[in-house]
Every structure is written in C-alpha cells, then in structure tokens.
Amino acid sequence: MSLTRLHACCAARDEAGVLISGVAGAGKSDLLLRLIGRGYRLVADDRVELEDGLARAPAALRGLIEIRGWGVIRRPFIEAVRPVLMVRLVRAGAGVPRLPDCREAHDPETDLPVLWLDGMLASAPDRIDAALDCLTGRAFRLPQGAMLTGDD
After folding, report:
1. In total, how many domains does the chain have?
2. Does the entry feature the keyword Transferase, yes or no (predicted)?
3. Residue 144 included in any domain
C-alpha cells in the first residue's frame, strides 16, 4: 500500500483514531494535549503517516509532543490506530456551518468523516467525543433540522 504523510496530530480513544489537521498555529498540539488529559492516547504530534489504513508517528517523532511555551516532551504513546475521524481546525469566526450536509462531510485527503472545528473552543474535546460517539454507534446524528424548534 502507499504511504501518505500528513501535517497533523493523532489521538486514540479506545480503538478509534482521530486525526487533527490545520495550519501552523491553529492549535493542533494544544487540542491533542487536552484530549490526552481526558484519557485519549497519544499516537502522533505534528506528523502522521497513513499506511494500510493505520495512522502512526514517523519513527523519529514517536512519543513526542510539543507544548508551546515549554518545549518538546516525551509521553507514553501507542504505535498505531485506525483513524475514523478527521478534525480540520479553523480560526475563530471562520464560517463553520451549524448543520453541515452529511453527504458532503468527508475529508477529500483521507476520505474520513470530517469535523470542522475551532480547536480553541472550550467545548472542542466534547465535540470530538460526540462525533466519535456517532461514528462508533454510541450516539446517532439526526437528519439536518430534525429537532430544531426554536430560533436559537
């Protein structure tokens, strides 16, 4: 199989991998650190290799994570995970649709379901949990507009 290299991070919850991508300074490592703090396992920070359906860190970066303002530290990590979700980080105020069209919600680079997210939001890890819950059958996403009854 072919090897794909991404400028991204990867965390694992149970057997489900989450790829986090965005421009430099968007908060990829910060969001990864918050996910690790809530029980996710580190797979990769800054660079991810995708091969045979698995995500892993390049050998030289395994177990390393950058903490902006502190430096690079070594953390426990897992070798590889099968990614099920791509999180694309956007800057605050960027036009993220409230209810995206589910048919168009796949990442063109990885063909994974994509969650567009401001990674600096306090709720960002909760939103990732909810998306993973839907993708792993713990919760179910309703059709667009199914429960909207108010003006909020």
Report:
1. 1
2. yes
3. no
| Structural domain harbouring 48 | 4-92+103-135
> Are 119 and 30 a contacting pair, CB within 8 Å?
yes
Both tokens of residue 98?
């409230």
Q: Is residue 17 part of a domain?
A: yes
Residue the block writes with tokens 């590889």: 80
Q: Residue 126 falls within a domain, yes or no?
A: yes
Q: Average pLDDT for residues 133-149, to the nearest whole number?
A: 73
Domain containing residue 10: CATH number: 3.40.50.300
SS (H, E, C) 64-130: EEEECCCEEEECCECCCEEEEEEEEECCCCCCCCCCCCHHHCECCCCCCEEEEECCCCCCHHHHHHH
What's the pLDDT band for 103 if we cut at 50, 70, 90?
Answer: very low
pLDDT tens per residue across span 4-45: 999 999 999 999 999 999 988 889 999 999 999 999 999 999
